[in-house]
C-alpha cells in the first residue's frame, strides 16, 4: 500500500512538472511572437557571445579534458595537487581534478568533469555531487576580469570579491556534506578505494577512434551550451523591456536567468557601489538558470542530481548575499 502511494505521488509530481514545462514553453513562444525584435536581438547577442567567447574558451578545455580522462593522465595531475586539496576539501585524490578544471573553466566544465569521472568509474557519485556544488561557479578569468575589472571597475578589489564567491561555495558545499552525513572516516575509505580503482584500471588504447570520440564529445557539449545561451539570451532580452517598471528587483530577476546580462545591468545602473557589489555577487554566486540548464545537459546518465545542485546554488546565493553585506559594511564601501 505504501509503495503504491509512493509511486502515485511520484507520478503526480512528474505530471505536474511536465505541465509546468509545457506552460512555460507556450508562454515563451507567445513572448517570441509578440516581441520579434527583442527576440532577434537576443538571438544575435547569444550567438555572438557563444561564438566569440564561449566556443574558443571552452572547446579546447573540453577536448583536452576528454583526452586526459580517457588516457588516465588525471593520476599525474592529482598527485601534484592532492596533498593540499585533500586536506582542505576532504576529498579523494581523483577529486582534485574536477576542482582544478572547475576553477579554470567554470561551469559547466566542473560538472561535466565530475560526470565523466563517475561514468569512467573513477569517482564516487556522492563525492561528485559535493564537488559539483563546490566548483559551480564562473571561471577564474570571468570573476576577476569581467566582474571586477570590466563591470564594477574596481580592479584593486578583484581578489576580495573572488574570495567572497569562493567562500560562499565552500560554505554551501560544506552544508551539503553535513546534510548528507559524509563523515571523515567514510571519506578516507572512499579515498583509498578511488586510488585503487585508478591504479587497477586498464589503460585506454591510443587509437583514432578514441581521439575522434573525444573531439566529437567536445563539439556536442559546446553545441548544447551554445543552444542554452542563445535561448536564455532571447528570453532575457524580451524581459528586459517588459520589466523596466520593476525597479532594482528586475536586476535579480534578469540575473537569475543569465548572469552576464544581470551583471551588465547592475554595473551600468546609477546605484551606489555597495549595492552593485551585493547584487552582482549574489547574481554571480547563483549562476543563473542558463548555467543550470548547461549543467543539466552535461550530467545526464551520471547519477548526479540537478535538483540537489539547484537547492544548494540557492543556498550559495543566500550565503554570498550575506557575506557581501558584511563585506561592504566592514570596508565602509558606499
Task: For this entry, give a set of tags.
334 residues; mainly alpha; 15 helices; 0% strand; globular
Give the topology string: H per helix, E per strand: HHHHHHHHHHHHHHH
Whole-angstrom Rg: 21 Å
Strand count, sense and barrel status of the largest sheet are: none
Number of domains: 1
Outline the structure in words.
It is a single chain. With 334 residues, the protein is mostly helical. It has one domain (36-330). Helix content is 80%, strand content 0%. The protein has 15 helices and no strands. The chain has helices spanning 2-34, 36-70, 74-89, 96-105, 109-119, 125-134, 140-151, 158-179, 184-200, 208-242, 249-255, 259-267, 273-286, 288-298, 306-330. Helix 2 crosses helix 5, helix 4 packs antiparallel against helix 5 (109-119) and helix 12 (259-267) runs antiparallel to helix 13 (273-286). The longest helix is centred in the N-terminal third of the chain and has 35 residues, at 36-70. The model is unreliable at 189-202 (pLDDT under 50).
Task: Quickly describe the structure.
Helices cover 80% and strands 0% of the residues. The chain has 334 residues and is mainly alpha-helical. Helix 12 runs antiparallel to helix 13 (273-286).
Amino acid at each position: 500500500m505504501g509503495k503504491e502511494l509512493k509511486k502515485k505521488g511520484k507520478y503526480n509530481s512528474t505530471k505536474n512538472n511536465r505541465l509546468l514545462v509545457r506552460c512555460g514553453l507556450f508562454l515563451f513562444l507567445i513572448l517570441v511572437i509578440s516581441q520579434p525584435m527583442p527576440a532577434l536581438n537576443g538571438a544575435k547577442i547569444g550567438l555572438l557571445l557563444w561564438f566569440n567567447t564561449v566556443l574558443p574558451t571552452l572547446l579546447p578545455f573540453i577536448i583536452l579534458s576528454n583526452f586526459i580522462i580517457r588516457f588516465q593522465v588525471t593520476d599525474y595531475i592529482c598527485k601534484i595537487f592532492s596533498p593540499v586539496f585533500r586536506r582542505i576539501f576532504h576529498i579523494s585524490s581523483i577529486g582534485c581534478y574536477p576542482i582544478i578544471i572547475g576553477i579554470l573553466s567554470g561551469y559547466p566544465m566542473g560538472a561535466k568533469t565530475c560526470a565523466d569521472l563517475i561514468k569512467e568509474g573513477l569517482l564516487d557519485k556522492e563525492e561528485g555531487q559535493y564537488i559539483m556544488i563546490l566548483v559551480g561557479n564562473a571561471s577564474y578569468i570571468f570573476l576577476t576580469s569581467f566582474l571586477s575589472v570590466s563591470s564594477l571597475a574596481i580592479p584593486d578589489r578583484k581578489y576580495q570579491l573572488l574570495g567572497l564567491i569562493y567562500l560562499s561555495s565552500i560554505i554551501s558545499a560544506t552544508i551539503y556534506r553535513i546534510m548528507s552525513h559524509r563523515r571523515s572516516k567514510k571519506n578516507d575509505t572512499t579515498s583509498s578505494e578511488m586510488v585503487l580503482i585508478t591504479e587497477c584500471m586498464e589503460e585506454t588504447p591510443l587509437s583514432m577512434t578514441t581521439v575522434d570520440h573525444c573531439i566529437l564529445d567536445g563539439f556536442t557539449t559546446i553545441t548544447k551550451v551554445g543552444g542554452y545561451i542563445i535561448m536564455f539570451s532571447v528570453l532575457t532580452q524580451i524581459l528586459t523591456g517588459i520589466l523596466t517598471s520593476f525597479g532594482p528587483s528586475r536586476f535579480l530577476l534578469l540575473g537569475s536567468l543569465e548572469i552576464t546580462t544581470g551583471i551588465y545591468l547592475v554595473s551600468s545602473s546609477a546605484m551606489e557601489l555597495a549595492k552593485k557589489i551585493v547584487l552582482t555577487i549574489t547574481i554571480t554566486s547563483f549562476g543563473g538558470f542558463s548555467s543550470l540548464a548547461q549543467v543539466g545537459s552535461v550530467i545526464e546518465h551520471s547519477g548526479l542530481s540537478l535538483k540537489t545542485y539547484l537547492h544548494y546554488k540557492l543556498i550559495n546565493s543566500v550565503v554570498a548575499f550575506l557575506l557581501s553585506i558584511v563585506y561592504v559594511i566592514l570596508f565602509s564601501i558606499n
